[in-house]
């Protein structure tokens, strides 16, 4: 019997510890599986695709022609939360499961979102510059115009895993919370002290608006000019989700016209940010380079999880976290988990 063959583009992605697949192989070694690199080009991948039993997606976009070239692969595994670099529609049409890591480093992202909220609210960067530039006496007058955090309203657009962890953190600061997410039941929100609401209600009432929607064809430019126009002039916009879910030009205009007061952004419509992006020169905007998930455990945790998902599928079982679960009943894989796990297709 031939070894299961996992195809991956050459080179690591997002890693800070170099290449190699030792962590992924912890779960795969017992299956005799091998990870085989191909050139990180569409042509190179397509040439190698027919021999692949699985794909470890990293380092590039996976287009429909690349996925259609996979004649026997059962799974495309992503070691990330987002899967927007994989054509999931094409994978679904091909009957291939696409997996992600939806809960591996969500604590870090929630910490980062809360950091951006607190830092923008208390004008952290501006206050730091005042001290460094000898403008000591300007600090207190600026904060004298800032309301107390306790009692203000934090609104969530999408209420998935990260947003729920942000809610746990925000509760300790005395924030009133509300959320819009038509795919999450009200009891999940109310159990965390979050009021279910419409999008218009969240926009109109929030002093802080935290965006958590994933990047999908349906969520592109989910927030536009008309949405920012409904927000309070003192509102601060936080985004640790995905940049393309927001019309960035509309956000910039809302900030420039003082339609909203500020922003804390970890993600952008175009990454890396171009040097002429107006956001770079705005005083009441705090930016980070799409690194909210980063911590000392980031690489190890996501690589091990990718290996576990690949091992599950290659041993004939459903994966833990499948973003297109409709393919699973006809996949020939077996549902192996008899009780709810509160996530993924096995729940």
From TrEMBL:
Keywords: Oxidoreductase
Domain annotation D-isomer specific 2-hydroxyacid dehydrogenase NAD-binding: ranges: 114-292
Domain of life: Bacteria
CDD domains: CtBP_dh
The protein, known as: C-terminal binding protein
């Amino acid at each position: 019997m031939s070894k299961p063959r996992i195809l991956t583009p050459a080179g690591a992605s997002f890693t800070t510890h170099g290449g190699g697949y030792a962590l992924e192989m912890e779960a795969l070694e017992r299956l005799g599986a091998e990870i085989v690199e191909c050139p990180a080009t569409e042509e190179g991948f397509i040439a190698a695709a027919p021999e692949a039993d699985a794909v470890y997606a990293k380092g590039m976009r996976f287009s429909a022609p690349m996925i259609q070239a996979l004649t026997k692969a059962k799974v495309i595994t992503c070691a990330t939360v987002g899967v927007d670099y994989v054509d999931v529609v094409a994978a679904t049409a091909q009957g291939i499961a696409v997996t992600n890591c939806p809960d591996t480093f969500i604590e870090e992202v929630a910490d980062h979102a809360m950091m951006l909220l607190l830092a923008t609210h208390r004008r952290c960067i501006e206050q730091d510059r005042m001290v460094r530039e000898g403008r000591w006496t300007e600090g207190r007058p600026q904060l004298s115009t800032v309301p107390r955090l306790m009692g203000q309203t934090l609104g969530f657009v999408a209420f998935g895993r990260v947003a729920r962890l942000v809610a746990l953190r925000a509760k300790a600061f005395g924030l009133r919370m509300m959320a819009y997410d038509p795919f999450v039941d009200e009891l999940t929100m109310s159990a965390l002290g979050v009021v279910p609401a419409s999008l218009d209600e969240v926009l109109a009432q929030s002093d802080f608006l935290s965006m958590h929607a994933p990047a999908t064809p349906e969520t592109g430019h989910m927030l536009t000019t008309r949405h920012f126009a409904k927000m309070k002039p003192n509102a601060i916009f936080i985004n640790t989700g995905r940049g393309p879910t927001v019309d960035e030009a509309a956000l910039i205009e809302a900030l420039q016209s003082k339609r909203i007061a500020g922003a804390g952004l970890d993600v952008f419509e175009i990454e890396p940010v171009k040097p002429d992006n107006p956001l770079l020169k705005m005083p009441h905007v705090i930016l980070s380079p799409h690194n909210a998930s980063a911590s000392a455990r980031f690489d190890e945790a996501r690589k091990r999880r990718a290996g576990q998902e690949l091992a599950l599928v290659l041993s004939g079982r459903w994966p833990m976290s499948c973003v297109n679960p409709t393919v699973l009943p006809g996949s020939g894989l077996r549902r192996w988990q008899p009780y709810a796990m509160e996530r993924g297709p096995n729940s």
